[in-house]
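Dear Dr. H.,

I hope your travels went smoothly. While you were away I took the liberty of generating a structure for the chain from your last submission, since the lab meeting agenda had it listed for discussion. I wanted you to have the full record in hand beforehand rather than looking at slides cold. The sequence, exactly as received, is reproduced here:
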Amino acid sequence: MHDQPSVSELVQAVKSFIDETAGPNLTGHAAFHARVASNALATVLRDLEHRTANEAAEAARLISLLDASQSDDLASLNARLSEKIRSGELTSETPGLLEHLKATTIAQVEIDQPRYSGLRTAKS
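The corresponding predicted structure, in token form, is as follows:
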């Protein structure tokens, strides 16, 4: 049994140090860079928390949309999607395509920019 901190716990510890100890004692450019570092770590934490579920949902949508095999990996599914869009085989009229693209984009924005002003509108 491993009794070490998880990756998320380690990242959270560094973020907490920046936010609670180092950052408040900094000024000017150093304070700005501390906020940037804290925001980057927050993005990493959201990604660690949501990536597995987001990728599973994306793969399920792609398998349905492309009538693909359950064994296809996400990268190959996305490559097939891109090729079918590029060739015109899939268009905005294709059932499920726009819904998939919207859901995938929303999932990524929730990780990258969760306070993005248009996110709430996009989700409704």
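Two observations you may find useful: DSSP finds five helices and no strands in the chain. The radius of gyration is 19 Å.

With kind regards,
E. W.
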